[in-house]
Design a protein that fits this description.
single chain, 90 residues, mainly beta
């Protein structure tokens, strides 16, 4: 990770991150599946993010945005997914 700045408490490291995520889900099946089957989806997401490391803390956040989506039936999906992870290293 590239060094972005120096703080009085030590190093601050900032790293940009980009991910491409694919999700393939088949329709429900079996005795308890609804009829007509209206589940399952395929989608491709791009997730730009940022990781900040200020020892002993590490913070990671990204926003997943759809590039392509195909849903079976009428389904509701979020326009964007947001993730925030905060970790303490000990």
């Amino acid at each position: 990770m590239p060094k972005a700045a120096i703080s009085p408490s030590g190093r601050v490291l900032i790293a940009p991150i980009a991910q491409l995520k694919a999700s393939l889900r088949t329709s429900d099946s079996g005795a308890n599946a609804t009829y007509p089957i209206a589940s399952g989806f395929d989608r491709l997401l791009v997730a730009p993010g940022l990781e900040v490391d200020v020892h002993p803390f590490k913070v990671y956040g990204d926003v997943e945005l759809p590039l392509w989506e195909h849903f079976t039936g009428d389904q509701v999906a979020a326009a964007a997914l947001v993730r925030l992870n905060i970790a303490f290293m000990f």
